[in-house]
Write a structure and sequence with these properties.
The protein has about 140 residues and is of the alpha+beta class. Helices cover about 40% and strands about 20% of the residues. The structure holds inosine-5'-diphosphate and magnesium ion.
Length: about 140
């Protein structure tokens, strides 16, 4: 089942020089392909839409500040079961609880600064891809 998912390499990943390392892991997954990629600093309008589900949570404001603190790499990855697969590659939200071998488990310690976003369902992927790459066919 070929799918598409929206991936963000968060400002901590860009600042720490981990873009190549993380994209390399994505590229090495057999059959997956990057079909869109852009470096950009996210504004509050985009982030309010992207993280709208968390609007009322205590971590929301610092999350938006962190996510707009520097450039992010946004990409769309296409391939077999890529939505579930990218979530597995990323690991769980808390990097300390994430297994070694996952991106968050290998490189993160802070819940907010957990390096990577990946869409969590087909509905989220559709919505997020349209938000970040409205012209993508
Ligand atoms: P996810 O990125 O694994 O899907 P979500 O629960 O959707 O996790 O949270 C979105 C983002 O908000 C997380 O990736 C993380 O950066 C941040 N976040 C989530 N929970 C907390 C928290 O308890 N404290 C601080 N930041 C959090
Ligand atoms: Mg989420």
């Amino acid at each position: 089942m070929s799918q598409r998912t929206l991936v963000l390499l968060k400002p901590d990943a860009v600042r720490r020089g981990l873009v190549g390392e993380i994209i390399g892991r994505i590229e090495r997954k057999a059959g997956w392909a990057i079909v869109a990629l852009e470096l950009r600093t996210l504004g509050s309008a985009t982030l309010e839409q992207h993280y709208g589900e968390h609007r009322d949570k205590p971590f929301y404001k610092p999350l938006v500040e962190f996510m707009s603190s520097g450039p992010t790499v946004a990409l769309v990855v296409e391939g077999e079961r890529v939505i579930e697969g990218m979530r597995a590659l990323a690991g769980p939200t808390d990097p300390i609880a994430a297994a070694s071998g996952s991106i968050r488990g290998d490189f993160g310690t802070i819940v907010r600064e957990n390096l990577i976003h990946a869409s969590d369902s087909e509905a989220s992927a559709d919505r997020e891809i349209k938000l970040f790459f409205p012209g993508l066919r």
